[in-house]
Amino acid sequence: MPTTTSPADLYRHSLRLLLEKDIASWVALWAEHGVMEFPFAPPGRPRRLEGREAVAAYMRDYPDHIDLHDFPDLRIHETTAPGTLVVEMRGVGRLVATGKPFDMTYIAVVTVQDGRFTSYRDYWNPLAVQEPGAALTTHPTRSSAR
To answer: Is the pLDDT of residue 27 over 80?
Structure first.
């Protein structure tokens, strides 16, 4: 995406890439030193990923676990902080291992600078990973738990 793309348009584009299962292009939207955080991550799950490489490692196998179909109820709120968004959305699809429906509500605080994600705090529901087939591959050696 060109650096003239608004943060909201960049975010919408990132969701399309996830639906297309184009993880490499999704990761390419990240700044080299971007940080992804999961403040509600349960024990044993990464709470912080530092750098594009760590984000790529975390997301690499995402489509093998969750087959996303849509992001209904998307609401993007621009803030007074330059390049910062608060996003409310649902991700719906199915769990690949079991075929069961996947439906999760998310709140994210996202910062974009120079057309790249620099910070992404993902407030997802940690109870959802207790569902068989929902576990994502984690890379504790590439992330730092707080």
So the answer is: yes
